[in-house]
Amino acid sequence: MSGPPPSGFRVASDKPFLVGLGVLGGSYLLIIAAMVLADLMFLDYGDRPVLGPEMVKQGRYTGGEATVAVEPGRSYFFQRGENEAGLKLDDQSVTGDGLFQTDGSTVTLLPDQPGQNKPVTASLRPKARVLGIAVTNHVATVTTDVMHGLLWGEFIRVSGTDAPGWDGVREISDTTTNQLSFAVADGTPPATTLSLSKPNPLVQALRSRDIRFSIKLSLVSCTLTTLLSLWVAVPIGYMMSRFEFRGKPVIDTLLDIPIVLPPLVVGLSLLILFRYMPEWLSDAVVYKWPAVVLAQFMVACAFAVRTMRVTFDQIPQRFEQVALTLGCNRRQAFWRVIMPQARGGLLAAGTLAWARALGEFGPILVFAGATRQKTEVLPTSAFLELQAGRTEGMLAVSLIMIAAAVVVFIIARTLGMKRIFA
Amino acid sequence: MIVLENIALRQGSFELSDLSLDLAAGEYGVLMGRSGCGKTTLLEAICGLRKIESGRIILGDRNVTELPPAERGVGYVPQDRALFPTLIVREQLAFALVLRALGQTEITRRVDELAELLGITDLLDRTPDKLSGGEAQRVALGRALAHRPLVLCLDEPLAALDEELHDEMCRLLERVHRETGVTILHITHSPSEAKRLAGCHFRLANGKVQRDE
Fold first, then answer.
1. Mind listing the pLDDT tens digit for each residue in A1-10?
2. Greater confidence, A255 or A89?
3. A10: buried, middle or exposed (CB in 10 Å: 19+, 13-18, 0-12)?
4. Best of B10, B47, B49 to disrupt the A interface by mutation (most A CBs within 10 Å)?
5. What residues of chain B lie within 8 A of the CB of A320, using their CB?
6. For A55, A420, B48, B190, which has the most beta carbons within 10 A of its beta carbon?
7. How many CB pairs below 8 Å do chains A and B form together?
8. What is the overall mean pLDDT for chain B?
9. Min distance A348 CA to chain B CA atoms (Å)
10. For residue B146, which of A50, A373, A322 has the smallest C-alpha distance?
11. Is the dihedral of CA A79, A80, A81, A87 positive or negative?
């Protein structure tokens, strides 16, 4: 019964469908990659100069140009505004942002559109120079010729000296408007050779005692939360997967509440719950580090429970049944037959819980507060940096979180791979 | 010996009642019946995996009705074999023996003996995903036999095998039966299989077990 294939029926090409899948999936992946890349690129990894106060007075380009008196032979930092084309000095012009040196006694700001009477928007600031150094009891007090704007607890990079124990990143232990102090070793280098700069935000963040504490607290609390979550999620997931009992749908819904509830509300509910707790307990938890763990745990655990339940659902009951006939009780069947098969799911649940805990912010803010060196975790640090107006610091903290998450995912994946290749 | 006395089972809306079966010690019984008539459920009840509502189950000379599966002395080979994915064949065969806290030398001896009987000596270090259908069936059989059960319950053990393997497995089952003397209850759809293997035919229909001679 062989003949020509039946004609008249054509199936439409798969191409539009596959292209559609590719475009949708691809654009999402692209956004993810671009997002992370933007974070990495936005941050200025170089050191920045220590600058004095703003020299450009507010005003308008009435005569077409604006001149600013400067000190000959000094370095200045120019930042172009939206109405400027650049800067003219001596016989050259500067169009980009950055440091330049001048020999003349004035520089001229060039408006973008001369004759339009637009406001001056550029910024010109002198680079700080060191006037003198005084050392007492291993603390150097450096006097600058301008107001440096640096704060206590910030970090400063000292360079250009050949005195041992001077060059490097130092923590500022005291400041006044034109002085700053930091610990040093012996010796006093000549003031003229010493130069100061602000290390990049990542170095600032990693050297900061507050952020170091928050990194430590984040790592410890997330790990604790993960262990706690798995400890709870395994039995609940197993129970929900294997047993039928009255009220199961209610419990099922309850377990999902932390997932659907706005995170802030979780924190608030915890706070209110602890008003009903005995005083010693609420004193020990609320606004202390245990509150951080508890707030993380409430949300992370719900995700771990879900993952473990799906994991156990995917392991047929048949395995336990066979194990039972072979001589196991339920406990033995669970540990010998089911848990070894659930290892992948356990790893997934752990990773998910860890990542959720790392990103937890709202409930922690409400339930644990945002006290530096006490309940400050990385998202709190990012928030505090933002509040202090340090976008770069916030970005630096974000990068630390990205790095931590990536490391944990790589570890989880490698362990997972081992299981597959073994 | 397998004796079921007037047992009743319920699974959802499915119900079997007043069901009796009698298989003498060392016999090879085959239970046939349409799909969905409750053969597997009945087998699970014998193994203790399903609670019966009334009646008695006697295996060997013990009333096991109230005993947990572990203490019934049954070997169970489910239809999907359910080999433990994380254990190598040697560990599967040793599973029941380790639970009984036997010595290492005794376990090794028993595992080798089983592997010899079933022709899987070369497969001992493989994981289940590296086994063919026929090989997996042999391992499942070995795992169920390891603790020398009185009763072996086979749920459609030959269903997914091709013609050639089918024949080979039939011979193997005959050999196992002959050499171990275990009482076997074997569920199947295939009349030819039943005819070839069984010393004793049962048919489950309309909630009753009939004995065909």
1. 556 666 788 8
2. A255
3. exposed
4. B49
5. none
6. B48
7. 64
8. 90
9. 18
10. A322
11. positive
Residue of B57, B76, B125, B145 to mutate when probing chain A, most A C-beta within 10 A = B76
pLDDT tens for each residue of A332-391: 999 999 999 999 899 999 999 999 999 999 999 999 999 999 999 999 999 998 998 888
| Pair (A117, A144) in one structural domain | no
Contact residues, chain A, for B82 at CB < 8 Å: 316, 318-319, 321-322
Q: How far apart are CA A77 and CA A96, in angstroms?
A: 10
Give the three-class secondary structure for A370. coil
Question: Tell me: the pLDDT tens digits for A214-238?
Answer: 999 999 999 999 999 999 999 999 9
Using CB atoms and an 8 Å cut-off, which of residues 24-43 of chain B contact chain A? Answer: none
For residue A227, give the CATH number of its domain. Answer: 1.10.3720.10
Phi-psi region of A76 (alpha: psi -120 to 50; beta: other; left: phi over 0): beta
Say what percent of chain A tops pLDDT 70: 97
* pLDDT value, residue A421: 45
ipTM: 0.94
For B86, the closest of A318, A324, A341 (CB atoms) is A341
Please report the pLDDT score of residue A93 as a whole number. Answer: 84
Q: What pLDDT score was predicted for residue A202?
A: 85
A357 in the same domain as A273: yes
3-state secondary structure of B38: coil
**pTM score of the predicted model:** 0.83
B70·A324 Cβ contact <8 A: yes
Closest CA to A347 of A177, A206, A233, A221: A233
Q: Which CATH superfamily is domain B2-212 in?
A: P-loop containing nucleotide triphosphate hydrolases (3.40.50.300)
CB atoms within 10 A of CB A1: 2
Establish if A338 touches chain B: CB-CB under 8 angstroms.
Answer: no
Any CB–CB contact under 8 A between A321 and chain B? yes
Flag whether A415 is in a domain. yes
- Tell me which chain A residue has its CA closest to the CA of residue B149: A326
Average pLDDT, chain A: 88
Residue A295 confidence (pLDDT) above 60: yes
Q: Whole domain around residue A403: which residue ranges?
A: 209-421
Q: Does A324 touch chain B (CB under 8 A)?
A: yes
